[in-house]
Write a structure and sequence with these properties.
It contains five helices and four strands; from the N terminus they run αβαβαβαβα. By secondary structure, it is an alpha+beta fold. The chain has a single domain, classed as 2-Layer Sandwich (60s Ribosomal Protein L30, Chain: A).
């Protein structure tokens, strides 16, 4: 995961466009405001199962970083988060695609 991706997440946090933690993400998924859900490597399998069971329209992405590494960019230790803004979600999806190639 590049520094640019982590910077996007930090910017999302400062803009108030992130749902952080299990309960906030579950609420965003139920309210259909989650555009993309992100899980760290050390997220429990229960988190992934619950997101998949919610049949969200948001993409679920497993990030190749730990929650400790993520905490440096967003300022809070979490292992699951959701982006609730279309613009940030599109920018992150584009960044993930660029990193995959």
């Amino acid at each position: 995961m590049t520094q640019k991706t982590l910077s996007y997440l930090g910017l999302c946090r400062r803009a108030g466009k992130l749902a952080l933690g299990h309960d906030a993400v579950a609420e965003a998924v139920r309210g259909k405001s989650a555009k993309i859900c992100l899980l760290t490597q050390d997220a429990s399998p229960r988190h992934k199962r619950e997101l998949e069971a919610a049949q969200t329209t948001a993409d679920i992405v497993l990030m190749p970083i730990t929650s400790q590494e993520l905490s440096y960019s967003i300022g809070k230790k979490v292992c699951v988060l959701a982006v609730t803004d279309d613009g940030f979600a599109k920018a992150l999806k584009k960044q993930f695609e660029e990193e995959a190639t």
